[in-house]
Amino acid sequence: MRTDARRHHDPLVRGFASDNYAGAHPEILAALALANGGHQVAYGEDDYTGHLQRVMHSHFGPTAEAFPVFNGTGANVVALQALTDRWGAVICADSAHVHVDEGGAPERVGGLKLLTVPTPDGKLTPELIDREAYGWDDEHRAMPQIVSITQNTELGTVYTPDEIRAICEHAHGHGMKVHLDGARVANAAASLDVPMRAFTNAAGVDVLSFGGTKNGALFGEAVVVLDPDAVRAMKHLRKLSMQLASKMRFVSVQLEALLARDLWLRNARHANAMAQRLAEGVRAVDGVEILHPVQANAVFARLPHAVGERLQKRFRFYFWDEKAGDVRWMCAFDTTEDDVDAFVQALKEEMAA
User: pLDDT by residue (tens digit) across 238-294?
Assistant: First the structure.
């Protein structure tokens, strides 16, 4: 029986659950159409992946090498494996995505021990790192070999270039390497108003997981090796981790479309601006508390649990800590001022009820 493709959702409906909920940016879709047609060599030997390397050089310097992958979990697991020995461990914040939201993939797929540190704002410091940076000669303890930070953090906060530089100098002084989970690296650069290189390779980061999906791509991220001497066997690890795309041109062309000009920055600036608009509206609502500085495209707030449940029936979002009534509201490249204003109005109505 023949069935025709049809739309199964209302494209006017927006939520504040995740920037992953957004569709693909029209310029990304146009780039995919441009790359379609004809034959290109598979597994990364295509013209688009080759050109992506030159684009990455313009952002991260001439030694940077990009390894496109399917998703952020894959990027993080491949990157962390490339930086460690079999007996190695990773120091990260206890709120880090690699610890909380990747289904145990670093442990089960990568075979890595995660050494987590509590942080008040999602950000590591040299002092916090030292809580787990010890015991390198103790065969009874997994050896700390990597510090993994997230920019911007899972709590929406942003490291300054100086903060990351201090972490890198401290980690390198202990013989450790630094991985940066950059699922929202564009939002961080837009917030700081600096090039991405200012807090990555220029600050001493060894390997970057570069995020595209949360910033307008249809799918696809990349492991960007910033220090070639810090890693080994990247191409083998990518294949072993089931992250080598056969038709890689369709991942690479999306990242090229984001980075070749300023689409990455336009999208990130807009999402950040919508989060600021949302925060301003929320601050005017009695009984709602903003929990963390709004520095990128996330707003964390506390409100009565019953209000949050009612509001969820009108707009999709997630509780961050259900017992406390803490919620997370995310803005995306396609969030509009009208979306934000409608949400704030709904929040006022539910609080008043």
Answer: 999 999 999 999 999 999 999 999 999 999 999 999 999 999 999 999 999 999 999
Residue 33 phi/psi, 5° resolution? -65, -35
Question: One-letter amino acid identity for 174?
Answer: H
- Asked if residues 119 and 129 have their Cβ atoms less than 8 Å apart, the reply is no
Q: Which of 48, 50, 133 is nearest to 91 (CA)?
A: 133
CA 291 to chain CA centroid, Å, is 20
**First CA to last CA across the chain, in angstroms?**
50
Distance CA 218, CA 35 (A): 14
Please tell me the chain's helix, strand, coil percentages from 3-state DSSP, rounded to the nearest 5. Answer: 40, 15, 40
What would the two tokens of residue 35 be?
Answer: 């790359």
Amino acid in position 145? Q
At residue 353, what is the residue type?
A
Q: Which residues touch 285 (CB under 8 Å, ≥6 apart)?
A: 344, 347, 348, 351
Cα 66 from Cα 57, distance rounded (Å) = 9
Q: Are residues 129 and 115 in contact, defined by beta-carbon separation less than 8 angstroms?
A: no
Six token digits for residue 293: 């500085």
In whole angstroms, give the CA distance from residue 71 to residue 223.
Answer: 10
